[in-house]
Structures are given as structure tokens and as C-alpha cells.
Amino acid sequence: MFHNWLHQVTEPPRPPSADAMVYTIDSYQVAVSLFQNIHMSRQCVRTARQQQQTAEAIAAGEPAPYDFRMMDPCVFARIVDDSHEQIDLSREQMRHIPPEFQLVDPDLPIDRLARQVGRLVAPDGLIYTRAVTLQM
């Protein structure tokens, strides 16, 4: 009811300029790309570390998990290298967007950049993940 009344007594805001809309969309798309590539890189590092630990446990005499397949570490390294190249490219793309439209600072260290794009792109997922982690 208040919402409808508010629309009746106020003027609608002016739409942003076309340039502002384009820069905002571009900035969000670059932030999503940063998020995806940082996530992929971290996931590959984590998976490679887990595989190494499992391989060491098997060598020490522990039984292998039924679904364990050792992947070539070079595959993980190549994916991480590709992700880092994409991260550098996305940072450069963000630098070409005017500062007032940049959703994240492209010059931040990678760990702070990862937190910023994570909050921006997947805020509910991160809150849920943190809650699950804290409950374990």
C-alpha cells in the first residue's frame, strides 16, 4: 500500500545514460569472469593437493578409495596457468572501465580481489558455504 502511494506522489528517477549502463554491465561481466577463473584456479590447486595426499597414503599402504584415479599434475598446472592468464586479462579489461563504474579494484592482491568478487558475484553462496563450514 505504501509502495503504491509512493509511486503516485513521486516522480520516477531518470534512467542512467547509455554509457553508464554499458560500463556497469561490462564491469559486472568482468567481475564474473574474475570470480570464475579465481575459483577454477583454487579448485585445481586444491584437487591436485588432495590427489597428492591420497597417492602418498596409498603408497604408505592405505587402501585406495574406490573412485580414485590419479590425474597428471601437468593437467592441473596447465589449467592453473590458463586461469591466471585469464585473471590478468580480466584485470586489464577492468582497468579500461572508468573508475566510477569499476565494481572491484583490479590492482588489489589476488586474495583480496577474490573476496571482493566473491561477495559481489555469489554473496548467498559464500554465506551458505561459511555457515556449513562453521557447523562441521
What does this structure look like?
By secondary structure, the chain is mainly α. The protein has one domain (30-135). The chain has helices at residues 2-9, 18-59, 73-95, 110-121, 123-135. The radius of gyration is 22 Å and the shape is elongated. It starts with a helix and ends with a helix.
What labels would you give this structure?
about 140 residues; mainly alpha; 5 helices; disordered C terminus
Topology record:
Blueprint lengths: L1 H8 L8 H42 L13 H23 L14 H12 L1 H13 L1
Helix pairs in contact: 2-3, 2-4
Summarize the structure.
With 136 residues, the protein is an all-alpha fold. The chain has five helices and no strands.
Radius of gyration, taken over Cα atoms and rounded to an integer in Å:
22 Å
Summing up helix and strand content along with how strands pair, one would put the structural category as: mainly alpha
Oligomer: single chain
Main sheet characteristics: none
Number of helices: 5
> What count of structural domains?
1
What's the helix-strand series?
HHHHH
**Model regions low in confidence, pLDDT < 50 over at least 5 residues:** 126-136
N- to C-terminal distance: 44 Å
The percentage helix is: over 70%
Which of globular, elongated, flat, extended, rod-shaped describes the shape?
elongated
Approximately how much beta-strand content do the residues carry?
Answer: under 5%
**Nearest-integer average pLDDT:** 85
Count of β-strands: 0
